[in-house]
Write a structure and sequence with these properties.
By secondary structure, the protein is of the alpha+beta class. Helices cover 19% and strands 24% of the residues.
Length: 559
Amino acid sequence: MYMAGVLLAVGTGLPAQAEPETDAPAPDRVIVKFKPVGIAGQGALNAENARRAVGARFLRKFHRIPNLEVWELPPQQGVDQAIRRLQASPLVEYAQPDYRYQVADVTPLIPNDYWYTTLWHYNNTAAGSDRTLDADIDAPEAWAVTTDASQVIVAVIDTGMTLIDAAHTIPHRDLQGNLWQNPAEAAGAPGVDDDSNGYVDDIYGINAITGTGDVYDDHFSGLGVASHGTHVAGSIGAMGNNGPAYESDVVGIGWSARIMPLKFLNSSGFGALSDAVECIDYAIANGAQIINASWGATTFDQALLDAITAARDAGILFVTAAGNSGVDIDVTPHYPASFNVENIVAVAATGYNDELALFPNSKKLSNYGRNTVDLGAPGLRILSTVNPNVWGANVGWLDGTSMAAPQVSGTCALLWSYVASQNPTYQQIRDQVLATVDVPTYNASIDPATYITDKTITGGRVNTFKALTGLFAPTGFTAAPMGRLATLNWDDTNLVESGYEIWRSSSMTGAFYLVETVVANTTTYATGPLAKGHYRFFVRAINAHGAPVDSAIATVRIK
């Protein structure tokens, strides 16, 4: 059996951190630091006397910052008045308001790659009457968080990879630094199967058609479509910020992704099922975490399903194109997108306005499926790397769900590398990306029939920045007494949190105060001794860029 590739075409440093911005101070709290004293117990007595003088109530002190306290003022005592009185005391080093801080705005990181400004899908500025502002994946904002995808291997199972020299050994200059290498073959002897896997000199990957390590992308369909695999790879991981010396450079989502090119589609864009399975098997054997499959067919095939299931069992995420025929694949299946396997992410193509993309060559829409296709991603007029021996240039434009799938693969690679220290599973990466999509708002200029809101499972388009920063409310939050202590428990529902804040109110109606901050992945916390009474608590998920999100409130009574 042969599988048709989904191919359509048209024509030919780290950012500086912003300082936190301050808002109006809390109206009922002050922060006081006392001068050190040499007599044991005298410091605490001085602080107690000072609190009584202004009628304040002690809220907290700090283990590693001595003599610093936070107080709550009575309603009749203003912050400015209390500070003046405290600063007049010879015992006080300083007194100040309890200022409130807000999350620092993200300063987008703009690479210097020559063609960056034409990559509308990264930053849609609505330059044209047919475009909607910010209908994009927010790549510059994501790059302000991280550009590093080097912890992840992405297997691009496709038409191969451009090797620009006659001997097929030198990769495309915008990809050569990001290609995965087989260490045994890279360090081995030429013409020898150094790792005994059946392939000679499979330094970058394999050509399953010829049974060799020559992954050269010879694709040219004769329909104005060429270099399909190279184009896909560039969207995932073309080297970033390496211009403007090369006036033909683009940038991929993961500036340092490790691309493993595996060729099973021939020069016309067709390939045998057995060769596709061989490539999946190779990806499993060589540690790929993500497979990008920008191809498909309408025939159900158990062997392909078994191979994808084996990839799932190996912990691999399988990102695939939904197809370009303008059909509902809930009704008319398109495989592998229509397989019901947990590791599959099926991707529709979107255009300049978050609508289903209409491809100019075929005049057909992207495939869709309310119960089958997971999300959309930009797939219209995407500029990426190509074979200069065919195109006469190092970059070119293509359309299709083939171009949409790598937007998701690149996002997953960037996220996976960002949280690599947590050893995430493919399910966690998949869930985070799907939970943080942008769901478009109504646009009167767009045909409602093409809106992705009811054409995909999530109803949205991938947002790389939100995938890296999106937080969710901790669930299952409880507070229980344990003698004079309170024990808090919650579910860790987040992948990208930097930690959790514990907030407490000492009455049933009073204000909440920050008690403690605990590290990421924490799910329990025990307070210090509490006085008798009722207390309310909640826990807040935080990170440097996302909006904080709170759990439900739990109440506990200390007897």
